[in-house]
Amino acid sequence: MGYASYLEDILDRLNEDLLDPARQLLAHPPDDASTEFLSRIDVFVRVCDQIQSDICKHIDLATDPNIKLTDELIRVQEREAQCNQDLNVFKAKCEKLALDNARLRFLIDQQRKKQSQISSVLNGVTCDDDKLKELLERSNKTTVPETRPNRGGLD
């Protein structure tokens, strides 16, 4: 049973089991039927008519020779497969970028630690340089003046 046949069966059951009895009830209401009851039956018939109209539209689509549902389904499935493939590529790229980002953050952190160590060493060298300059200045002030060697009394 194809889709169109399935819809036609539903349409037949809708008419036979619901619409026909409801229409007969409206055409020949019982003597004790209230207007509210008849009004509800009328609303029910209008809703069923709308459902019947929708089913007929679907039957028309299913039986239209210009629409090839099988071809359309295959095309949609191929597009879905391509989208899933593109999504997987995108996910892989995102994961790689996340790993690269983590690696770069680690390297930046390592570089900062090395820079901090170098700064500490340079500060220590600067302090040592200042101390050496100070010691050199002190030693220059306290050193004995230079004496010239005696050249045999010829000065």
Task: Give a verbal description of the structure.
With 155 residues, this protein is an all-alpha fold. It has a domain at 1-67. The chain contains 3 helices and no strands. It has helices at 3-27, 35-63, 69-142. Helix 1 (3-27) packs antiparallel against helix 2 (35-63). The model has no long low-confidence stretch (mean pLDDT 86).
In terms of DSSP E residues, the strand content is under 5%
User: Helix count?
Assistant: 3
Assign a percent range to the helix content. over 70%
Radius of gyration: 49 Å
Shape: rod-shaped
Per DSSP E runs of 2 or more residues, the count of β-strands stands at: 0
Q: Low-confidence parts lasting 5 or more residues at pLDDT below 50?
A: none
- What would you call the quaternary organization? single chain
What structural category characterises the helix and strand content? mainly alpha
The average pLDDT is: 86
Biggest sheet features: none
- Terminal Cα separation, in Å? 136 Å
Listing every helix as H and every strand as E from the N terminus to the C terminus, the arrangement reads: HHH
